[in-house]
Amino acid sequence: MFRYYFTLGLRSLRRNRALTALMVLTLAVGVAASVSTVTILHAMSGDPLPHKSDRLFVPMIDVVPLKSYVPGAKPTFGQAQLAYIDANNFMASNMGVRRTVMYGVAGPVEPARTDIGAFQAQGLAPTRDFFAMFEVPFLYGQPWSEADDASGADVIVLSRSLAEKLLGTVNPVGRRVTVLGQPYLVSGVLDHWDPVPRIHRIIGSKGAFGTEDEFFIPFASAIRHETRHDGGMACSGVERGPGFQGTLTSDCTWLQFWFEMESAGQRGELQAYLDSYAAEQRKLGRMPRHAPNALYNVKEWMVFLNVVDNDNKLAAWLAFGFLLLCLVNTIGLLLAKFSVRASEVGIRRALGATRRDIFRQFLTETAVIGLAGGVLGLLLAYAALAVVRSQSKELGTVAHMDIPMLLLTFAVSVLAALLAGLLPTWRACQVTPAIQLKSQ
Amino acid sequence: MLRMQNLSKVYRTHMIETHALRGFDIHVQQGEFVTVTGPSGSGKTSFLNIAGLLEEFTDGEYILDGVNVRGMDDNARSRLRNEKLGFIFQGFNLIPDLSLFDNVDVPLRYRGFNRAERKERIEDALAKVGLASRMKHYPAELSGGQQQRVAIARALAGSPKLLLADEPTGNLDTQMARGVMELLEEINAQGTTILMVTHDPELALRSQRNVHIIDGQVSDLVQHGATLSARPQHAATV
């Protein structure tokens, strides 16, 4: 019978065309508004490494001076990064299967080609483990070696777009490029890599939804060349000597650090290490705040850094409020549509339809309206996301609809229509056939 | 085929009780063609609605083809209505946006017949009423007489045991009314019991038996030219 009801539902779309169009449009607008905001929210709060995000940890220790410290207060941005001393110590530990320290760098790139001039590029200075830890895909070559990390060798991994810009589409591994005023030997070229959000670079000039870094050089090489840090640094109240070396020996926090553990269950082990490390440092006169040491896995890290801020959440709630408003309107329209069908209900009941048959028929009809609303809502959502992309480069990376969101659009639309249809359908079932048949 | 004993129907509002039927007794045999007459407000329609399981009665007993319908739930009543009854209404009551084929298909869908059987029954029923060639037409494309024929085809398609007709010729001119009446007589001749409400004394005379209702009770029972009874208490059973 479902097929029969579905066919009747399709036919019913043609009846009262203006009313049907109004219902479909009302639903579509509500669905488009909610789905497009949820799409953005979904992408923003997505987990690019779902299979390992619970075993990637950012360590947080508080090396900030005691001044104005409130015990129990929420950790601040200053604690979200590490001082060079601690990052070096963590690198030297044997904790986890991988460790990486990194900081953002930026500077001129000087192409060997004569047809383009020098230009600015942004990059990252991590250690070799970074590539395996964040599963960065390679088009050519490979990451630099451990020996390169140890010696601070001048090797470089280029993004695909930068490699093509500098050297064309040929394999550039083994060639040299001049970046940040130094010649670097190309060890690899990345394939397209566009994690959303960029969990490894939430703190940085481009943020969680920026475009990917264009080049990667060994952390040790960047330090050796005293490559200027491009990003946030917390130095408030910290004693710091002059120049780059002064920063390295200070408690200024400016480096990001990640541990990869073999399993999420090793979190306790890592926490114990962190506590023990902090206790040792306190003996050396550091960490006067005695603040708790913390570990954040990927999801916790995203929450801590407000990757999805309250404005985004509010926007989603508002969109759902709007959908609710559309639903209430749809209920009114459906009541109007179904009220003129009382005679049909009477006829069908007289010919043997049970109340349940009528309920199923009319609810299927509302589902058909929901499907039509879903199709239109999808088009409107695509249009809305296109507008969002054109307005903001940052939102452009998240304003894309994937298959789950596409299916969600139809699910939301059909569910919304079914919800809106419950009352009108129930009322249609209450029709007294005898009265309707006589009044025809 | 149909037996009602001491049946009553009371409509209640906050203030008023209206007795549409009281102490109503009737027995219709299988294969009969019975007309029901009576003035407006006499209870004819209430009787037909109760007979057609479209309304519940307040008290008494109603046996339809051996089934006691008292206390039946909505599903059972709908099933019984679908299997045993066919309806023909004064206003035809066709669904305007369904073709003739689909209109006749409606009761068969609820009966659960398969596609092939439905098709065969629809074609047969429309052929019986002379509209086989217009299956794909819509009700609005037909005359009143033709629409009533479609309603008759729809009522017949499920092979009902009892055909309930409420003023089936009331909206038709004389010629069309005659045609519909002849069709009903043909159907009756083939064994289908017919219970028809009418205002027209001429049509009442064409039936095998006429039941006259006044004030919710059976007043007269007339069988083809001979009055069987005309009792003041009106509770009569044949």
What is this structure's SSE topology?
The complex is a heterodimer of chains A (440) and B (238).
Chain A: H1 2-14, H2 17-44, E1 56-60, H3 84-92, E2 98-110, E3 119-125, H4 129-133, E4 138-141, H5 146-151, E5 155-158, H6 160-167, E6 176-179, E7 182-190, E8 215-216, H7 219-224, H8 243-248, E9 256-260, H9 267-283, E10 294-296, H10 298-304, H11 310-339, H12 342-350, H13 355-391, H14 393-396, H15 403-429, H16 433-439
Parallel strand pairs in A: 3-8, 5-7
Antiparallel strand pairs in A: 1-9, 1-10, 2-3, 2-6, 2-9, 4-7, 5-8, 6-7
Chain B: E1 2-12, E2 17-28, E3 33-37, H1 44-51, E4 59-64, E5 67-68, H2 74-84, E6 85-89, H3 100-111, H4 115-128, H5 144-157, E7 162-166, H6 174-189, E8 193-197, H7 201-206, E9 209-214, E10 217-223, E11 226-229
Parallel strand pairs in B: 3-8, 3-9, 6-7, 7-8
Antiparallel strand pairs in B: 1-2, 1-4, 4-5, 9-10, 10-11
Helix pairs in contact in B: 3-4, 3-5, 4-5, 5-6
Largest interface: A-B, 25 and 29 residues
Rounded Rg of chain B:
18 Å
Tell me the series of helices and strands of chain A, N- to C-terminal.
Answer: HHEHEEHEHEHEEEHHEHEHHHHHHH
Helicity level of chain B: 25-40%
Instruction: Give the strand tally of chain A.
Output: 10
The total of helices of chain A stands at 16
Q: Please work out how many helical segments of chain B DSSP would assign.
A: 7
Morphology of chain B: globular
Separation, N- and C-terminal Cα atoms of chain A: 27 Å
Tell me the series of helices and strands of chain B, N- to C-terminal: EEEHEEHEHHHEHEHEEE
Query: Helix amount of chain A, in percent?
Result: 40-55%
The secondary structure category of chain A is: alpha+beta
- Estimated share of beta-strand residues of chain A: 5-15%
Average pLDDT of chain B works out at 86
Q: What would the average pLDDT of chain A be, to the nearest integer? A: 87
Percent of residues of chain B in beta strands?
Answer: 25-35%
For the sheet with most strands of chain A, the description reads: 6 strands, mixed, barrel
Q: Determine the structural class of chain B based on helices, strands and strand pairing.
A: alpha/beta
For this structure, the quaternary state is heterodimer
Radius of gyration over C-alpha positions of chain A, nearest whole angstrom? 30 Å
